[in-house]
């Protein structure tokens, strides 16, 4: 679970997205899914030069298109050094 996250506009919070954000802040996961942690993970994967990278869900926190764009931009560099396969998680299919 990497959870690239953007705070959704208020109009997009009338769904499970609101619960997802509560989970992120109340359970203290904001630090675990920070841009710094995500960048370090990608840099580590690039340095490892693995044979294959499998992401098993939760690229995003609230399945916003903008969050998928963040994930795509970050993982593009990883995909340049190894084949990359992604299986969507529950946070990736809120809509």
Description of the structure:
The chain contains 3 helices and 2 strands, in the order ααβαβ. Strands 1-2 form a two-stranded parallel sheet. The two termini are 18 Å apart.
What's the SSE pattern? HHEHE
Are there runs of 5+ residues with pLDDT below 50, and where? none
Share in β-strands: 5-15%
How can the largest sheet be summarized?
2 strands, parallel
Distance between the termini: 18 Å
Structure summary, number of beta strands = 2
Average of the residue pLDDT scores: 81
Instruction: Give the count of helical stretches.
Output: 3
User: Roughly how much helix do the residues carry, as a percent range?
Assistant: 40-55%
Rg to the nearest angstrom? 14 Å
Biggest sheet: strand arrangement: 1-2
Please tell me what the overall shape is. globular
Structural class: mainly alpha
């Amino acid at each position: 679970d990497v959870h690239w996250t953007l705070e959704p506009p208020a109009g997009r919070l009338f769904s499970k997205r609101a619960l997802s954000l509560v989970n992120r802040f109340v359970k203290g996961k904001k630090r675990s899914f920070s841009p710094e942690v995500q960048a370090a993970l990608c840099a580590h994967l690039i340095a490892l030069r693995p044979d294959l990278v499998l992401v098993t869900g939760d690229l995003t926190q609230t399945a916003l298109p903008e969050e998928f764009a963040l994930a795509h931009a970050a993982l593009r560099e990883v995909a340049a050094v190894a084949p990359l396969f992604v299986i969507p998680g529950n946070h990736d299919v809120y809509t």
